[in-house]
Fold this protein.
Amino acid sequence: MIWFGRRGLRVLMYHKVSPVSEDEHTVNVARLERQLRWLRDEKFQFTTLADLLRGVLPARPVLVTFDDAYVNTLEVARPVLRALSVPAVVFVPTAFIGQTSAWDRDPQPLMDVGQLRALAGDGFELALHSHRHENFAGLTSAQIMADVRESMVTIRRLGLTTAPAFAYPYGGRPRDRRVRATMQAVLRTCGVTLAFRVGNRVNALPLADPLEIQRLSIRGDESFWAFQRKVAWGKFF
Ligand SMILES: [Zn+2]
């Protein structure tokens, strides 16, 4: 394939990885491997939150992220990522550590503290995904403040280390400008300097707003062509 896409930062958003089955929020291991190999063959360079925070991105940066800290990120995705030397970020909803994704239609086991530690020492960066995994679009400023603070307190209490980065559950942020400004102020007060929504666009560099970074939703029910097109152009093609 001759490259024809937009310039900028691509952030891939994965959820579950399965040995076999697929659906909107689940890719199977063969699909994950094919996608990562294709990115590498197209001369994309896998980057990290640390690089992004330092402002030292490669020429064609791609950041791989996994939401929700499913056990399958550790058991199914990690071997593929390790074999291809691809770093990744895991966004952790702190109230659910060691439990299940109670918000899912089909709740799946989530990593416990020991599993998160094992992952963090193995090419993954941990980052925040709220405390209760509620959609910030429907919360008041006070509720958002309480949730973000609870999340930070929990991380500290468990002795985990996270990057100063945050993924909004469901990609949701308050529509009301004042509430959104308060949310951003809360995040900054808690030391968060990068925050990720969905949006399905390639991010122009330098980033217009580091608390509104867009991610490309990678689904298990799309063709490989749809994946390539999304990576190349984002939502518009
Ligand atoms: Zn989530």
